[in-house]
Structures are given as structure tokens and as C-alpha cells.
């Protein structure tokens, strides 16, 4: 289980999250909805160990998180992968798509070209695209590479923050199917942050709404 417990985040004097609690269960998709600006991306970053909250705690498979970003222990950092809406902010423009997908393996000192090739194929990247750099591919193609990169170290939790919002319907469906196939074979927990109620109806097992004052849980989605 990946849990935020009474998490508070302040930016200067603005309180963006006020004692918010949320659980991301292994093997299930938790949908996170709520109005623009209510703090969904902020909570996603806290759960991905990218942002230290001002108060409260994050517990990852029973262990309290004590350090954040690059200071977090490698085992905790690689347990949670984050996907953003804008792949161009998340990918090094100097690298080819193959290198982008392989980056976490290279950083861990265990290159695995076969796994990179398998994930590239699964996300729908053809060999001619893999040697290109981000400025030579579309946003959808780059997001496919970012999804492959997010899965390459087999995270136990995947935080998808508006992962498909900017993409056409067929790319959206493909990438959600890739994440779903990964979840089913690995038992990973998924947090799907989205404005798109129809997407969360199809995808999430349960839905949490982050309001201005409280956090309520909706009934599980059918199916
Ligand atoms: N780095 C930052 N510095 C200062 N304020 C910030 C920062 N990041 C976010 N905020 C503010 O925190 C609030 C919550 O932002 P956040 O991006 O978490 O909301 P959101 O629910 O994801 O919004 P949206 O649905 O529009 O993406 C907003 O008022 C935003 O302006």
C-alpha cells in the first residue's frame, strides 16, 4: 500500500493540501478527481516522493518515507513511477527514445536492451522512431516512450497524472491498455489523476474526489 496520511502542503502562505489522506492499493486503480487547482498534481508529486510535504507522512509498503527526491533510498525511489501530462518536460531532449526508455536501467547500472525493446514494442514504438530525439517525434510518440520508461524498473506503484489528457483517443486507449496489462501481470497499484470522468468510469476501481475542504470516497466503479 502507498499511503498519504494527513498530508499538508504549503506554497509560501497558500495551503494547497490540508491534512489529506489517500491510499493507493496494490493491484487496483484509484482514480483521483477534483476541480482545477485543488491540489491533485501536488498530491501526486508527494506520493511519487518528488515533493516533501509540510506536514503529515507518506508510508510506502509499511515504511515511512523520510527522505525525498534524489535523497530517498533507491529502493523506495524505484518503487514509485510518475507519468505527467507533458512528456516534453519529462524527457531529456538530447537522448534518443531508446536512451530515454533505458535511462532508469542505466542509472541502476543494469542495462537490459531486450527489456527496452519489448517495452518499446508494447507501447507501439516502431524501430524507426526509437533512434529519433524528442523534437523529431509527436507528443503521443514521446509519451509512449515515457510510459515504457516508467515501467522499465517494474515499479510497485504507478502515478499517472493526466497521462493521456493531451493525446488522441486511440493513443489514450493504447497507453491505458499498456498500464492495465502491466498492473495485471505485476500486481502494481495505480493512481489515475484525471479531469475525465468517462476515463475514470472505465478505468478506476474506486474514485476519490479531492475537494476544497474534504476528501470523500465514491463507490467503486462497476466492473
Ligand atoms: N511550485 C509551486 N509554487 C507555488 N504554487 C504552486 C506550485 N505548484 C502548484 N501551486 C499551486 O497549488 C495549487 C494546486 O496546484 P495543483 O497543480 O496541485 O492542482 P491540480 O488540482 O493538479 O490542478 P489542475 O487540475 O489544474 O492540474 C494551485 O493553486 C497552484 O497554483
TrEMBL record:
<keyword id="KW-0813">Transport</keyword>
<dbReference type="GO" id="GO:0005524">
    <property type="term" value="F:ATP binding"/>
</dbReference>
<protein>
    <submittedName>
        <fullName>ATP-binding cassette domain-containing protein</fullName>
    </submittedName>
</protein>
<feature type="domain" description="ABC transporter">
    <location>
        <begin position="2"/>
        <end position="221"/>
    </location>
</feature>
<dbReference type="InterPro" id="IPR003439">
    <property type="entry name" value="ABC_transporter-like_ATP-bd"/>
</dbReference>
<dbReference type="InterPro" id="IPR027417">
    <property type="entry name" value="P-loop_NTPase"/>
</dbReference>
<keyword id="KW-0067">ATP-binding</keyword>
<dbReference type="InterPro" id="IPR003593">
    <property type="entry name" value="AAA+_ATPase"/>
</dbReference>
<keyword id="KW-0547">Nucleotide-binding</keyword>
<comment type="similarity">
    <text>Belongs to the ABC transporter superfamily.</text>
</comment>
<dbReference type="InterPro" id="IPR050319">
    <property type="entry name" value="ABC_transp_ATP-bind"/>
</dbReference>
<dbReference type="Pfam" id="PF00005">
    <property type="entry name" value="ABC_tran"/>
</dbReference>
Amino acid at each position: 500500500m502507498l499511503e498519504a496520511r494527513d498530508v499538508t502542503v504549503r506554497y509560501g502562505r497558500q495551503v494547497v493540501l490540508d491534512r489529506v489522506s489517500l491510499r493507493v492499493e496494490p493491484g487496483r486503480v484509484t482514480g483521483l478527481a477534483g476541480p482545477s487547482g485543488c491540489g491533485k498534481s501536488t498530491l501526486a508529486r508527494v506520493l511519487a516522493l518528488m515533493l516533501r510535504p509540510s506536514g503529515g507522512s507518506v508510508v510506502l509498503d509499511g515504511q515511512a518515507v523520510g527522505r525525498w527526491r534524489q535523497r530517498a533510498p533507491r529502493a523506495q525511489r524505484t518503487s514509485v513511477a510518475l507519468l505527467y501530462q507533458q512528456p516534453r518536460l519529462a524527457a531529456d531532449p538530447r537522448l534518443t527514445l531508446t536512451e530515454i526508455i533505458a535511462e532508469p536501467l542505466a542509472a541502476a547500472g543494469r542495462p537490459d536492451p531486450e527489456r527496452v525493446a519489448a517495452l518499446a514494442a508494447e507501447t507501439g514504438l516502431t524501430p524507426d522512431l526509437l533512434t529519433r530525439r524528442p523534437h523529431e517525434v509527436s507528443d503521443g510518440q514521446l509519451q509512449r516512450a515515457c510510459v515504457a520508461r516508467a515501467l522499465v524498473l517494474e515499479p510497485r506503484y504507478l502515478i499517472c497524472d493526466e497521462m493521456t489528457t493531451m493525446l488522441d483517443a486511440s493513443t489514450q486507449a493504447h497507453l491505458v491498455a499498456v498500464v492495465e496489462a502491466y498492473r495485471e501481470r505485476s500486481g502494481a497499484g495505480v493512481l489515475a489523476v484525471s479531469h475525465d470522468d468517462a476515463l475514470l468510469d472505465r478505468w478506476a476501481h474506486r474514485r476519490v474526489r479531492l475537494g476544497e475542504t474534504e476528501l470523500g470516497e465514491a463507490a467503486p466503479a462497476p466492473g
